[in-house]
TrEMBL record:
Protein name, entry field: T9SS type A sorting domain-containing protein
Domain of life of the organism encoding this protein: Bacteria
Domain PorZ N-terminal beta-propeller: 44-205
Keyword match Signal: yes
Organism field: Flavobacterium cerinum
Keywords: Signal
Pfam family, one: PorZ_N_b_propeller
Signal peptide: 1-19
InterPro entries in UniProt: PorZ_N, Quinoprotein_ADH-like_sf, Reg_prop, Secre_tail, WD40/YVTN_repeat-like_dom_sf
Keyword check for Signal: yes
Length: 763
């Protein structure tokens, strides 16, 4: 597909869509990596990688601000809460400044730094935000910017190097009429804050040439943190050492009458006289490093690298409370799996060429509606790293198998590890490791159940690359030596098993491999070339079977369709087809030359397609119509890199695992039911002010749905595709119907089943 098509689709779904449809989205973000903390007398604010949360010091209420609220962060690097404006200012590593109005939750993007053409993109990072006299001083990797809080406009930019060059400014503070700027390599520079000509670099003078990390004010003194692990004070006379710490500061803050010095493993809290009130070196039962800290009254709040925000009191620093909202371990989720009552997530990944290094060790996360997130920690998984995919037993959702692209296959039952399968405990027909000296490296991917309860998976970089753990706990292997070239060098994406028990195995270099042991161990390989399968590329990233038994194949360079998986049973070669669409009356190939990361099929046989760097498309069953395109720019999607898509067939909810967080869209396509016994209508009644659609679910496929008023006048009619029909409470899409009771008549395609429901509309 040409880039012009992407532009057209983006214009179709712009900002008004986001404003109207956010109620259809949910966010499941990680708040474990705390980047900054700010305090007020009644509330403490914290930023994670790309979200903001706060906690009331009065009633302990937690509040989150994420992409669902229009908060589209990159990677957060600094934060400031303005008491005078009741706004939270958030700086990012790309220079983006986000302003959250806490009164109404609105978010304003300030892109002046992002759009500065004279500054290199890698020099736009915002390091610190400091408010003084109606101005926000923004410390960046290139210098210092000023933002007017009253007018919400940028003012001057100061390049304060000795020769007017760019210098990294780490932190600023105003003291006794001077603004002090701590720089990375040029010591502390200062200038008169009232000087109207601070854009002139000569107005900035060297205050001290030492190696400094931070500067704040406390009790009418200027407090300085040096890289030599010492704290100094300055009172217009001389710089004096006042305290020696153990490690260099990673964060240096003052609030009211408390100074907090935070290093990787130490938090020091001082009173105005620099009397040490508290020294924290560890949070009980938590292994982590500290990133920031602030003291508000008698409370100390500490941000950590990967465990969230904790609080304790100045007088009792042995008792800690976790103040972190529920969420997954991290935002970069590699793979999801939806079970009937839970959503599972793993984080271990591999790169474009299936290299899992550096190895990840993050455990397995589980989300249960109404309960929140829990974790099976890495420490309880026998050292299994780089967990890549999940398969849930269709007959027992409490049992799942998780592939590790380094350690083998894990069997999990009732939230605990039962066994880690490796080359050491699966026999001569089981899993295989790489040759010595890498004989601990066992690259398993894509476990999938067949209808007999057997679990199929791939084992990369070995000759017998296809493995099965049978329902009787016996292992079998299938040799690919005579099927593909160099199987000992081949890697595989997750496989699927179709209704005929055919396994479809995507490979990096050898196209798509079809296999069925029930047909004499039959193999068919689909590759590039008109005589070999017509794939656009031999690097196949994902496959999915739709409800019409078509096989959708996503490759590194586009999409192909196998018209029916049944052809594998009767033919010896298979040819795939491109989907051709019309764009401005010109025939174009759908997703031409695009890297397709994932394909998922919803209950109405629509396809959800993830494009590398391009967000997610929902296309019609035949691919001829684009129903939705979601990107970071036009939706709550926090990133255009969607690693995995998972669909709840019962509710129609579509989950998107991105490299910046997990979100979901409440789709309307649910799986069709076998009968009409479980039809339900929601909401019912429809109350005044409701702007959404009435959801009629639990339908069979191709059910006829008619809605009439109480007198029998028809106002709506449609045929279901899947298990759900939506009604916008309008009479044939024209005008909103009046208050009253409306009858819903449902019948199967052949008229053998019927159901009648009612819905009340209250205007």
């Amino acid at each position: 597909m040409k880039k012009t098509l992407y532009i057209i689709f983006t214009l179709l779904f712009t900002t008004p869509f986001l404003a109207q449809q956010n109620q259809l989205w949910r966010g499941f973000f990680s708040y474990a990596e705390i980047t900054d903390i700010a305090a007020t007398p009644i509330r403490v604010f914290a930023t994670s990688e790309n979200a903001v949360f706060s906690k009331s010091l009065i009633n302990n209420e937690l509040k989150t601000t994420t992409s669902i609220n229009g908060f589209k962060a990159e990677t957060i690097t600094a934060m400031h809460f303005s008491v005078t404006r009741n706004k939270t200012f958030v700086g990012n590593d790309n220079g983006l400044l986000l302003v959250v109005n806490e009164a109404d939750g609105s978010v304003f993007n300030v892109v002046d730094i992002v759009n500065k053409p004279s500054i290199a993109p890698n020099k736009k990072k915002i390091n610190h935000l400091y408010e003084n006299d109606g101005k926000l001083y923004i410390s960046c990797d290139f210098g210092l910017c000023v933002y007017n809080l009253a007018t919400s406009e940028f003012g001057d930019t100061y390049f304060i190097g000795p020769a007017g060059q760019e210098v990294e400014v780490l932190q600023t503070a105003v003291y006794n009429g001077f603004i002090y700027a701590v720089t990375r390599n040029n010591g502390i520079r200062r200038a008169s804050v009232a000087n109207p000509n601070l854009v002139d670099f000569t107005q900035w003078q060297e205050f001290d040439s030492g190696s400094w990390l931070g500067v704040v004010t406390l009790n009418n003194r200027l407090m300085l943190a040096n890289s030599n692990n010492r704290i100094y004070s300055y009172t217009n006379a001389a710089i004096q050492e006042v305290y020696t710490t153990v490690q260099p500061a990673v964060d240096f803050k003052s609030f009211n009458d408390r100074l907090v010095y935070t290093s990787a493993n130490h938090v020091y809290v001082f009173d105005p006289a620099m009397v040490l009130l508290s020294h924290i070196t560890q949070i009980p039962d938590i292994t982590t490093t500290f990133t920031c800290g602030v003291a508000a009254g008698n409370n100390i709040f500490i941000g950590t690298k990967d465990k969230g925000m904790f609080s304790t009191s100045v007088n009792n620093s042995m008792t800690f409370e976790n103040n972190t909202p529920s969420g997954p371990v991290r935002n970069n989720i590699f793979s999801l799996k939806k079970a009937p009552s839970a959503l599972w997530a793993v984080y271990g990944d591999y790169n474009r060429y299936y290299n899992p290094y550096p190895l990840d060790a993050y455990g397995i996360s589980k989300f249960v509606e109404g309960t929140g997130w829990s974790l099976i920690p890495y420490e309880e998984l026998s050292g299994a790293k780089s967990l890549s995919r999940i398969a849930v037993n269709p007959n027992n959702e409490n049992q799942l198998y998780v592939s590790s692209y380094y350690s083998g296959l894990l069997k999990i039952e009732n939230n605990a590890l039962v066994i880690l399968y490796t080359q050491l405990n699966t026999g001569t027909t089981g899993l295989e490791s790489l040759p010595p000296p890498n004989n601990n490296d066992i690259r398993v991917n894509g476990p999938a159940f067949d209808r007999r309860g057997n679990i199929w998976m791939t084992n990369s970089l070995v000759a017998k690359g296809l493995k099965v753990l049978k329902a009787d706990n016996q292992w079998a292997s299938y040799d690919l030596t005579n099927v593909i070239a160099n199987p000992e060098s081949e890697n595989y994406a997750p496989l699927i098993v179709d209704k005929n028990n055919t396994k479809w195995i995507p490979s990096l270099n050898n196209g798509l491999i079809g296999f069925n042991e029930n047909y004499g161990n039959k193999f068919i390989v689909i590759k590039t070339g008109t005589d070999s399968g017509n794939l656009p590329d031999n690097d196949v990233r994902t496959v999915a079977v739709d409800t019409r038994n078509q096989l959708w194949i996503g490759t590194n360079k586009g999409l192909r369709i196998l018209p029916s998986v049944d052809r594998f049973l009767t033919e010896t070669t298979l040819t795939t087809n491109a989907i051709i669409i019309l764009d401005d009356d010109l025939a174009q190939e759908l997703f031409y030359q695009q890297v397709i990361l994932d394909i998922a099929v919803d209950g109405s046989n629509n396809k959800w397609v993830s494009i590398a760097g391009g967000g997610v498309f929902q296309v019609s069953p035949n691919g001829q119509s684009v129903l939705h395109k979601f990107t970071k720019e036009n939706s709550p999607l926090p990133s255009n890199n969607v690693n995995d898509i998972e669909i709840d067939g019962v509710t129609g909810e579509v989950f998107f695992a991105t490299d910046k967080g997990l979100v979901s869209f409440q789709g309307t396509a649910t799986k069709a039911n076998e009968n009409l016994n479980n039809v339900y209508v929601f909401p019912n009644p429809v109350r005044p002010g409701f702007e959404g659609e009435v959801n009629i679910s639990g339908l069979i496929d191709k059910a006829n749905v008619k809605i009439t008023d109480i007198e029998g006048n028809l106002v709506f009619e449609t045929t279901s595709q899947g298990g759900t029909v939506m009604w916008d409470t309008r009479a044939f899409g024209k005008y909103k119907v009046a208050s009253g009771v409306y009858m819903i008549f449902i019948s199967s395609e052949d008229g053998s089943e019927t159901k009648v429901k009612k819905v009340m509309i209250i205007r």
